[in-house]
Description:
The chain has helices at residues 5-14, 27-40, 51-54, 61-72, 89-97, 112-128, 157-167, 191-200, 215-222, 233-249, 262-281, and strands spanning 19-23, 44-48, 79-83, 102-104, 132-136, 171-174, 204-207, 226-231. By secondary structure, it is α/β, with parallel strands linked by helices. An 8-stranded parallel beta sheet has the order 3-2-1-8-7-6-5-4, sandwiched between helices. Strand 4 (102-104), helix 6 (112-128) and strand 5 form a beta-alpha-beta unit. Helix 5 (89-97) packs parallel to helix 6 and helix 7 (157-167) packs parallel to helix 8. It is globular. This is Fructose-bisphosphate aldolase, class II. It comes from Lactonifactor longoviformis DSM 17459. One of its GO terms (biological process) is carbohydrate metabolic process.
Amino acid sequence: MYEKTENILKMAKESNTAVISFICMDYTMARSVVYAAEAANTPAIVMLYPEHVTVQHTTGFANYAAMVKELAGEVKVPIGLHADHDFTYDAVMNTIGAGFESVMIDGSMNDLDTNIALTKKVVLKARESGVCVEGEIGHVGAAASSDNANEDLYTKADAAEKFCRETGVNSLAVSIGNAHGEYKDTPHLDIPRLEEIHAATDVSLVLHGGSGIPDDQLLTAFSKGINKFNLGTEFLGRYYDAVAAFSLENADNPDPVKIINLPEYVQGKLQPYLEERLRTLCHF
Ligand SMILES: [Zn+2]
């Protein structure tokens, strides 16, 4: 069933666990997540990375929101919808207008006061329509440039406290040794820093750059305030591998419309992987 992400975050906070928010670029990925969540009997969030609309053209904003709500209606577990990194006020308003009730405004490339001003403006407008907002401070950079090891980018507890108090965000993405993309070396989350941020704030904390962080570190982080965990790179890699396997298996298949079997084949490969992730990491 469709559930507002705001409510799923509350459930995760009460259970002292995290919901996994999966980047899904199309129907095949979204359907795989929804049915894996049903099989694992746990909530999940289907998340749009806006560039998949604006750059890669895999979907549209409004049809994506409608697609996720329709898929969610096919299962019993709570399925949320969320839009990942938008960087401007206008972009967030466009996303909200398309039917998203949970959005992210990422002002983390700005100085703290500019980030606060931008995020606060988004929160005030979003609240009018009951939309929940995720912000970010510190800066979650790119794993390819080893940003996860750059403590200058890490979130500071006093800044997090000020940010949450002044903006009114529902959730906050933190930088504690995580980064987007594929890590060069095994990342090490700064758990004492997470504990400080958790003690200084009362919002749901969010961990971006989830691909490649060892499970024991993730589970520790989930017990110390991380209530949402974004998984993209690893999932997209599994998608590619499944398409490649389908292509190999059908190399000698003369059927001119063999492509129509691709989505079901890929979903059959992705669902067991997703189910394993949900069963291992989510404890509602
Ligand atoms: Zn991110």
